Amino acid sequence: MSTDDDKPPPSSVVTHVVEVDPVAMRRHGILTVASGLEAGKVLSIPQGEVSTLGRSSDCTFPFDDASLSRQHARVMRVGSEYILRDDGSRNGTFVNNTRLTKAETLRNGDRIQLGSSTLLRFSLVDDQEEKALRRVYEAAILDGLTGVFNRKHLEERIQAEIAYAKRHNTRLSVVIIDVDHFKKVNDTYGHLGGDAVLRAVATLFGAGMRTEDVLARYGGEEFVILLRATSAPQALELAERLRKKIEATAIPFEGRDIRITSSAGVASNDEPDVSSDREALLGRADERLYRAKSGGRNRVVGP
Q1: How many CB atoms lie under 10 A from the CB of residue 183?
Q2: Is 152 helix (H, G, I), strand (E, B) or coil?
Q3: Which domains does the chain have, with CATH numbers?
Q4: Dihedral angle over CA of 228, 229, 233, 235, nearest 10
Q5: Catalytic: 138?
Q6: What is the mean pLDDT of residues 3-9?
Q7: Which of 221, 247, 271, 279 is catalytic?
């Protein structure tokens, strides 16, 4: 019969105290676009969801790149890890120049290539770092007053949209809209009143845009809208709808309502005498804007 003296002594238990970095615990994964017109754009990878990447507009993160498959790859967060997987794409998914043949766990700083030309960088950041990256990107492409695209980005996008229209044999329309008598607004309400008008106009325009449309401030009180896969009659209809909306809107400013009107010119690459290049499209739309203003303003002129 055994006694307590016969039992082996209890094994000693060693407790390790691990210091947890609270900043590291708050870090999450993002993808930063490193090529093309959207270079610098930040894509947040949501927790608990599968995010798809590809050429299709149905993807979580769509890219305008003909070398991509419609659904090219997917990325997901599993616990604290981020997993990237190719979805059987034609031109492959690469991490640090190595083509994926199976799911890959991403590491901070990894360079991702989709197809032949879409480049991304994976990073672990906290909320403040992500906000800072977004501010840098937005400052480069957005107009500081209105929040719509700036002229520099418009010039880049119009070339890309023309190339897209040629590649897919589709239509592209351009609308140039100008606020009527804007100098009178500034003279009556001051420059702050003029700023309020421009912000309100940009908001009204933006509410009527599709995801693929491009709205930019062209300069002063002029705005340009690029309409992908849109015919001249459809663009005219949109411009007229926006004109009526502006005319019907009272813009509040310091206890008063500012009322304005607008004029617009429309051009499209489906017109027989308009070539598919930047100068032809913008030039024809600008010419028609001038006719709208010289014809009495508060009107739209198109083909």
Answers
A1: 11
A2: helix
A3: 22-141 (2.60.200.20), 151-301 (3.30.70.270)
A4: -10
A5: no
A6: 52
A7: 221
**Which DSSP helix (H) or strand (E) runs through 168?**
helix 151-168
Helix (H, G, I), strand (E, B) or coil at 159: helix
pTM of the model: 0.80
- φ, ψ for residue 214 (rounded to 5)? -120, 120
Q: What is the DSSP string of 170-207?
A: --EEEEEEEETTHHHHHHHHHHHHHHHHHHHHHHHHHH
In whole angstroms, what is the distance from residue 204 CA to residue 246 CA?
7
Which residue type does 187 have? D
- Give 5's DSSP letter: G
Inform me whether the pLDDT recorded for 92 exceeds 60: yes
Dihedral Cα 282, 285, 289, 295, nearest 10 deg: 150
Structure tokens at 288: 């028609």
Share of the chain above pLDDT 70, in %: 92
The string of DSSP codes covering 90-144 is SS-EEETTEE-SS-EE--TT-EEEETTTEEEEEEEE-HHHHHHHHHHHHHHHB-T
Q: Go through 264-293 and write b for each residue having 16 or more CB atoms within 10 A of its CB, e for each that does not.
A: bbbbbbbbeebeeeeebbbebbbebbeebb
Which residue is listed with tokens 């009322």? 259
Taking each helix axis as running N to C, give the angle between helix 182-207 and helix 232-248, from 0 to 180 degrees, rounded to the nearest 10. Answer: 120
- Give dist(CA 108, CA 99) in Å, integer: 18
Q: How confident is the model over 140-158, as pLDDT tens digits?
A: 999 999 999 999 999 999 9
